[in-house]
Amino acid sequence: MYGKAFAPEYQGALTTLSVNSSLVDVLAEGTERLREAERAGLPGEAARCGLAVAEAHRRLGHVRDADRAWKASYRAAREAGDTAAMAWALWSGGTLARQRGAFPLARRLLKLAADLGERGGDVVVRGYSLAGLAETGRIQGDYAAVGRLHEQLLAEARSRGEARHTVWALEGIAQMHRNTGDLDRAYALFEEAAQIAGRADDRRGYAWALRGLADVLSVRDGATARALELLAEAEATCREMNLSSALAYNHKMQGNVLYRAGRHAEARDRYELALAEFRTMSEPRGEALSRLGLAKSLAHLGRDRAETAAELAELARTLERSGLRHARETVARAQREFGLDAEAAR
User: Fold this and answer.
1) Which one is predicted more confidently, 128 or 346?
2) At what angle do helices 83-99 and 43-60 cross, to 10 degrees?
């Protein structure tokens, strides 16, 4: 049985904040409480309020502010001798590094966070940090290495009745099944994630689950209208909660759904919107995937073949350098789709 979802990253004076609080509100209150703690000379409280500030900045796409905030939180936690707070700050930093495409740094920070969480007796930050390591591997397409870890973390979250973490794990496993072609299994897992998130009032998790369901409905069933309905529902939540990254990925998925339906002009518009959003928040993976969708849409709309070939070849090199294996494979499929694979090999 799962209880109401909660946000363990909202700590100290901010524990009254909801998992569904607007990120703009979190940032405002977190900054105010952080300043109060600093004026009072309370580094432990400053560390925990600073964590919420760092996470709000990160999720809003304020990369530089997020980077400064998590480092300040870590320094304050170290001054206070608070091992668990140090772990949380490192978790935030590692999550930001993954968002920015700095995968080796992400793994290093998240491993340190997991170790400190265990040493500090905070099972939640340990679990979140291990989850971050698993997600980093999944995003890079290393399913064999992280699949077992996802399953382990799912079992731990279920045993504690922790709805938000269970939803995260289900969605991660579902995404791996979707990417390897087991669409029925992926749909069942996304559906379970949506049900748990809905009952636990985890609106962020619910929005991500709807995105996954829409993707599978589009690929497996060609159910374009239903997929767009689910994405519209998720988009409303993203806007209400100021979930910048989730909103950008939602727009990219709208592009995917429209592209599969042969509605290439509409798909182009969605990809252009997502691309601008990802560039604003300096999220290279989302930017690359949006560029790919845009290039494919433009090709169908009559773009010069040589320009398409050059764009896809450059994207392939970018993704190869960044270590995004699954995304690199999607570019290879696009090259084959347009008969450009032989040209790319020259």
Assistant:
1) 128
2) 20
Q: How far apart are CA 193 and CA 153, in angstroms?
A: 14
Domain coordinates in residue numbering, the chain: 267-346
Instruction: Tell me the CB-side half-sphere exposure of residue 339, using CA atoms within 13 A.
Output: 3
* Residues with Cβ within 8 Å of residue 163, at least 6 apart in sequence: 2, 3, 4, 5, 196, 197, 199, 200, 202, 205
Residue found under tokens 């390897």: 180
State which amino acid sits at residue 142: D
Amino acid residing at 281:
M
Alpha carbon distances (Å) from 236 to 85, 145, 209, 239, 242: 33, 35, 14, 5, 10
Please answer whether residues 119 and 83 qualify as being in contact, where contact means their C-beta atoms are separated by less than 8 angstroms: yes
pTM, rounded to two decimals = 0.90
pLDDT tens digits, residue range 238-261?
999 989 989 999 999 999 999 999
Q: Record the tokens describing residue 309, joined without a space.
A: 């070939």
Per-residue pLDDT at 140 exceeds 90: no
At 214-232, the pLDDT tens digits run 999 999 999 999 999 999 9
Q: 3-state secondary structure string, 194-232?
A: HHHHHHHCCHHHHHHHHHHHHHHHHHHHCCHHHHHHHHH
pLDDT in tens, 49-80: 999 999 999 999 899 999 999 999 999 999 99
Q: Are 124 and 113 in contact (CB under 8 A)?
A: no
